[in-house]
């Protein structure tokens, strides 16, 4: 694994760090790098380091009160080779999606919400 300084990091504020770790490692192919739940954990997939911050973490405490509500429209994008197979696999695991599968000029995508409501976009680029 690359060192943390070589990874692209994205912070998600989560309601339950252990639940978030289980979601990302079980369903989306991440591996645990650090886990000091209930405050914080980070999981890695490729060059993406996802910082999972619970309410006791410094990352969550730094969030201004007027911005601490529900997640916004931002999301991480995880490329997949076969989006229909991924949708089938995740649905069989009991997960539900936050959007329908849509296709456009760049490819196909669907949104999945983690246990805290943070969005994950599964994306299959258009074949060239």
Automatic annotation (TrEMBL):
Membrane-spanning ranges: none
InterPro entries in UniProt: Glyas_Bleomycin-R_OHBP_Dase, Glyas_Fos-R_dOase_dom, MMCE/EMCE_epimerase, VOC_core
Stretch list, region Disordered: 55-77
Database matches in Gene3D superfamilies: 2,3-Dihydroxybiphenyl 1,2-Dioxygenase, domain 1 (3.10.180.10)
Keywords from the UniProt entry: Metal-binding
Domain VOC: 6-125
Keyword flag Metal-binding: yes
Signal peptide: none
Pfam families the record matches: Glyoxalase
Entries under SUPFAM superfamilies matching the protein: Glyoxalase/Bleomycin resistance protein/Dihydroxybiphenyl dioxygenase (SSF54593)
Top-level taxon in the UniProt lineage: Bacteria
Entries under PANTHER family matching the protein: METHYLMALONYL-COA EPIMERASE, RING-CLEAVING DIOXYGENASE-RELATED
Identification of the protein by name: Glyoxalase
Species whose genome carries this gene: Nocardioides aromaticivorans
Source lineage: Bacteria, Bacillati, Actinomycetota, Actinomycetes, Propionibacteriales
